[in-house]
User: Fold this.
Amino acid sequence: MSARLLVAGVGNIFLADDAFGPEVIRALKGRPLQPEVLVRDFGIRGMDLAYTLLEGFDTAVLVDAAVRGHEPGTLSLIEPDLPGRATAGAPPEAHGMDPAKVLALAGHLGDEPLPRVLVLACEPELRAPADEDIAPGISATVREAVGRAVSALHTMVPVLLADPSATPPLSRPDESAALPPAGLPGTVGDGAQDR
Assistant:
């Protein structure tokens, strides 16, 4: 039996390059993944994602924009540390998406362990100014990275379906070393795969 895998786009389409995750999910409609993969745009619906993570997936790949200090458009593959059941923390906002809070809530709600979680992250170029609520449209750099992310998912997903514990390549075979653990909210471990 094939592993069940979730590919989840997260991010706010009204906050510039934060729309990376939803844009990748939209691009996957033209290049669909295997039928064993649930592909869904969660946008900023953190509660929906938390409950979906409890549906028995072996692996979940979150597609998101993340500031890591790289060149804009750089893709990184990150494996965050998953919270324990006792670490419930504050629940996610009804219309917000903080992946760390979502994972903490999912870990608290479920009786079974969470699936393995990987984050396919893109370094943003444009971010909404702090005093603005809306900054629609992603940068040309991140738009180009959307296509590379779709290609990366088409490479990663067969590896993860065959073996959910495998470290899928992000670009070149020499980047297939074990993934380091990372904290989610803006701080990620050094040495994650980048391209």
